[in-house]
Amino acid sequence: MRRIIYHPKYSNYDLGPEHPFSPLRVEMVIDLLKELNVPFNYIEPEIVSPDLLTQIHNKEYVDLVEAVSKGEEIPNYSDFGLGTADNPIVKGMAEGARYLAGGALLGAKLLIEGKANKVLQLGGGFHHAHKKLAAGFCLYNDLALAIKAMTNAGWHVAYLDIDVHHGDGVQEIFYTDDKVMTISIHESGEFLFPGTGWVYELGSGMGRSLKLNLPLEPFTEGDSYLEVINKAVEPALAYFKPDALVVQTGADAHFADPLADLMLTTHDYEKIYRRIFELADENCKGRALFTLGGGYCPRATSRIWTILYFIFNNIPLPEKLPDTWRKHWEKRLNKPFPETLHDQLPAFDPIPRKEEVVKHNKDVVQRLMDAVAPDWL
Question: What's the CA gap between 169 and 220, in Å, rounded?
Fold first, then answer.
């Protein structure tokens, strides 16, 4: 059984009209689903309490976030990553973030209680939120809260992050936890925020060799990306044998994304999503929770997450975008939109460094497998 989770109050997590992490991205997806006459039946989560978030975050941090979100003047807010261009202080942001955390938590509960075997949370994916630090557009770590609920139930959980940025907050929170394997596939921190996610970040203590990072070379294309999944993620899941998979499905590895340098197309995302579904079926009885995440080219992100929605619900993908939807959003965003759901191929000129990029990514996989081998064998 598959369930969709969404709440209209997710849009309260709005960091401003010029901020790239815009609720418009999800609004575009929902609007497109309606134009395509696709069933959109969802469960609304309850908002989580600030106290519940202290399972993941430092209490002083939660108290401060809640206070500044209400408009209270707190002098040391910058010590907690707030008041920056990435994480501005906006009245009501904490409520929106707690609704989104409630969605991820509800997804975990549906899996634990056997009321669903796959859940799609249409929002969230705040993988940069640390125990006591806001970062990278992220306030509360909804992913960590869902994972914690699963481990509290005695489950082992694999977390797979395909956002183009390293999933540093989730990794930090579970760095010593032997019930959680984190796998992040991202553009190398040598070139991209947050500057972490190296192969040698393997976890510590009981969590050693369970925190896996695959920093990819800029201009990585789809074939190389899929090879990384097959050569690293597949054996990792086979080794760990998780009870469930939690997936952050950021869409910012698309070639049109303005904040990163990977070269995936919508066709690649379709293959990646289908492969992840196969891996869930093969390794954890199909139990998987999907959230959204980054993705800062709305014309691409809306189509990518629509593809995810169709695959999630086993619905054949449409070829054309409805003219009414396309023209509406062209006018609203003042940008041209493609006529088709998928990118038209070839989407870009061949990358001159392709062989070098592929070799680099193969080397990353080999170094990671060599590093974990002593603990896995």
Answer: 24
Q: What is the pLDDT of residue 196?
A: 98
Tokens linked to 28: 């575009």
The reply to whether 156 belongs to the active site is no
Length of the chain (residues): 377
The pair of three-digit structure tokens given for residue 52, joined into one six-digit string: 């519940």
The pair of structure tokens assigned to 230 is 């097959």
Q: How do residues 325-341 score in pLDDT, each as one tens digit? A: 999 999 999 999 999 99
Of 320, 302, 230, which is closest to residue 266 (Cα–Cα)?
302
Nearest by Cα to 137 from 259, 305, 254, 299: 259
In this structure, are strands 157-161 and 180-187 parallel, antiparallel, or unpaired? parallel
What's the pLDDT tens digit per position in 188-226? 999 999 999 999 999 999 999 999 999 999 999 999 999
Q: What residues have CB less than 8 Å from 274, skipping those under 6 apart?
A: 311
Question: Which is the catalytic residue, given 7, 57, 127, 128?
Answer: 128
Domain boundaries of the chain, sorted by first residue: 2-376
Whether the CB-CB separation of 196 and 226 falls below 8 Å is answered with no
Question: What is the pLDDT at residue 351?
Answer: 85
2-376: CATH topology: Arginase; Chain A (3.40.800)
